[in-house]
Specification:
Strand content: over 45%
Order of helices and strands: EEEEEEEEEE
Number of strands: 10
Number of helices: 0
Largest sheet: 6 strands, mixed
Radius of gyration: 13 Å
Shape: globular
Distance between the termini: 40 Å
Length: about 120
């Protein structure tokens, strides 16, 4: 049974950092990509970053360039989204999703986690 569980969200002040985790089970990351998406209130879900089975890391949101990074543990069971220099506009529910390859479109991903709230506010 495929399952994705996000964790690590919370309230952080502007300029702070958070690391989100996406724990995967029921499949191996050797063959699938994991994308991070976010959805702010009243806005469409947008792709942020992805990591492919081969380790490619396409960036989908220019607004996070140089601040967010995506990594994968050596056991290939967990994908992380390290978020630094957070801004209020980063406030959103963050989701991880599994698909056959990295694509910007959310529709190209087959399985989704439940999401974790990130709030950046002073």
């Amino acid at each position: 049974q495929v399952q994705l569980v996000e964790s690590g969200g919370g309230l952080v002040q502007p300029g702070g950092s958070l690391r989100l985790s996406c724990a995967a089970s029921g499949f191996t990351l050797d063959y699938y990509a994991i994308g991070w998406f976010r959805q702010a209130p009243g806005k469409e879900r947008e792709g942020v970053l992805c990591i492919s089975s081969s380790g490619d890391r396409p960036l989908y949101a220019d607004s996070v360039k140089g601040r967010f990074t995506i990594t994968r543990d050596s056991a290939k069971t967990t994908v992380y989204l390290q978020m630094n220099s957070l801004k209020p506009e980063d406030t959103a529910v963050y989701y991880c999703a599994m698909g056959p390859s990295c694509r910007y479109a959310a529709s190209r991903y087959n399985y989704w986690g439940q999401g974790t709230q990130v709030t950046v506010s002073s």
